[in-house]
Design brief:
By secondary structure, the protein is an alpha/beta fold. Strands 9-10-8-11-12-7-13 form a seven-stranded parallel β-sheet, sandwiched between helices. A six-stranded parallel β-sheet has the order 14-26-25-17-24-23, sandwiched between helices. Strands 27, 28, 29, 30 and 31 form a five-stranded antiparallel β-sheet that branches. Helix 1 packs across helix 11 and helix 7 packs across helix 8. Strand 25, helix 16 and strand 26 form a beta-alpha-beta unit. Helix content is about 30%, strand content about 25%. It contains 21 helices and 31 strands. It starts with 7 loop residues before the first strand and ends in a 5-residue tail after the last strand. The longest helix is centred in the C-terminal third of the chain and has 15 residues. It binds adenosine-5'-diphosphate and zinc ion (2 copies). Adenosine-5'-diphosphate binds next to helix 8. Its cofactor is Zn(2+). Component of the replication restart primosome. It comes from Iodobacter arcticus. This is Replication restart protein PriA.
Amino acid sequence: MTGVLKKCVYVSVALDVPLTRLFEYSVTAERTPAIGARAIIPFGPRRLAGVVLGVAAETQFDSSKIRSVIALPDDMPPLPEDVLALSRFCAEYYGHPLGQVLATALPVALRQPKTFVPPEPSGVYQASNLDALLQSLSPRAFAQKQLALMLAQPMARAELAAISPSANKWLKNWIDAGWVAFTETLPDAIPLPVGAAEANAEQAAAIALIDGQHASFAAFLLFGITGSGKTEVYLQTIAACLARGQQALVLVPEINLTPQLEARFRARFPSARIVALHSGLSDKERVLNWLSASRGEAHIVLGTRLAVFTPMPRLGMMVVDEEHDASFKQQEGLRYSARDAAVYRAHQRQVPIVLGSATPALETWHNARQGRYRLITLQHRAVGGAMPPQIEIIPMHRAKVVEGLHQATLNIMRDHLAAGQQVLVFINRRGYAPVLSCGECGWLGECKRCSAKLVLHLKERRLRCHHCGYEEVIPTACPDCGNQDIRPLGQGTQRIEAALETLFPDANILRIDRDNTRRKGSLQEMLRQVSAGEANLLVGTQMMAKGHDFPSLNLVVVLNADAGLFSVDFRGEERMYAQLLQVAGRAGRAGTQGRVLIQTGYHDHPFYGQLLAQDYAAFADAQLDERRSMQLPPFAAYALLRAEAEDGALAKAFLQQLQAVLTDAAGVQMFDPIAATMQRKAGMERWQLLVMSDTRHPLVNALKRIAPLLEARNNKVRCILDVDPIEM
Ligand code: ADP
Ligand code: ZN
Ligand code: ZN
């Protein structure tokens, strides 16, 4: 304290701490920050970065106790009103501290308590004479060629530098030679691209509808099977948006799995700046791309769920592709639905939003049926002649089976391979076998820390828990009775791969699952092998189901399909339908009709009748009827409170305490706390309390009552709140 009275203002700052309240600091009046700006402040002995949410001339606290702001870095445009509004909405709706929501919204580099100094000027490089540049390269200079081809588009230096450590040197040479130019700023408006496919009648109607709403909010559900031309509709409506000088935000489930989509956008908009935002990027790439979007330089942002918070000053439309995908819901920290947040934001900004899917989430389908979203259906595959895949059921009841594969399945596979086609065996279970067992005493290998079986990984010579990561060596004899004949039960990808190696010794087999694609770039390399035809018999998990086009794949075999039918989760069938249709969509992309074989032990279950009809609308309507009669979402709003403690009794008691606080809240109902489906996980006992109401408002209001209890420090019990849980 200097004793000299400088004129001060007081700012309230949201901090990344698990507390709902804001914190006040003083700044000298000359430096009054904007709302939404970053501030670096003292917090106890530490420094933290936060976001300024209020500025006032007075304070209600003792002004002598208020500490002053350390710095107001001018390293990003202040967060705009719509991002702040979206953050406030998420904080309230999902019951999460605002400061932590805002931290989620910012890239890591801008959460640090120091000024971010960009390592290079903003601005982009682009080839001014690509032909001359390419001709100058030796045919073996692969990295240089890759870099040169990237320069067909405007690219920032950080993106280019990722290609090779020599990128900067090459770039300099090419600029000196006059083949590449640097521009500080690109024009806002991008002229309509030439050479786009001519929209068919259905697409043209869709584009006209969406584009006709460009000056106000409207939510569209673009419903059409894989290959019906949804992406083409996004591209053409985005083209119109860019031509008006606006920006577009496109959310995709997992960008690592959709490099083809990014390539398609880049090919369509060669003069636009397209930036990606996803967890596969380095912190540096992420902050630069984010800044490029927030300064209005990037025309298109292609990102995963976290990109929904990206500031975009000239936002003109939004797209959520594969809107039903579970990965739009974050499953930790701020448990938000990026799809719902996107709709909120589109409304806030008064721009149209397109939700695209072949199998819309039932929540979305209901909104469309109610008329809140406008339903646009693409009935046909876009490419002339391509037909939806033919789905067949292979009943497994009393069948002759080789390693989980029916004889009929094997015969059909053999025919396809002999005809030079690719075959995909889809099994949603990695490892060799889901459990190891003793035939003598009934012992099963179980995780010591979870209520779960240990999965046998033969390649890695381990038993592994897929829930907590615990692993141990494979025992040579039964730990209980000493019997040496212990056996794997059931099949996983590794076991199917091994079986296929024996059954099809001439095939080039490739297994693709999480275990062998952890290394960066390995998935891309495998996908390249598939596209190049270097492998013809593929074994894969759901990683294979999404978004890849394999031109010569036209048989998909689905093993172990039934899991979803008996799931405790009421969304089991909805998910299963979506997944099976998605994997079926991998078959027969190139003009031929694909074939899908589904092996099931329950072939007369009504679900398979609905699947064979390939009429998702009818399936969804029937599911909605069931949900309505059972008061399940979307006909009721739910929140899940899950408490975990080493001592289960403490977890249960904590939930009972919450229950008591909520008991007389208007309009909500509760069930008694119950043990979670997976009662033990990573050494913790888990209990849960479900709270519901007919509509969202009473629920959100009631949950405010328990915020202080959830915020209070409790070393023994960890409790999370999940509003609109996707698993319950
Ligand atoms: P979806 O996103 O629904 O799976 P796409 O937009 O990817 O469908 O279209 C499937 C295929 O059809 C793509 O190869 C695309 O280039 C092509 N396609 C889409 N619309 C047209 C069109 N109007 N004319 C010609 N080809 C088209
Ligand atoms: Zn035994
Ligand atoms: Zn475990």
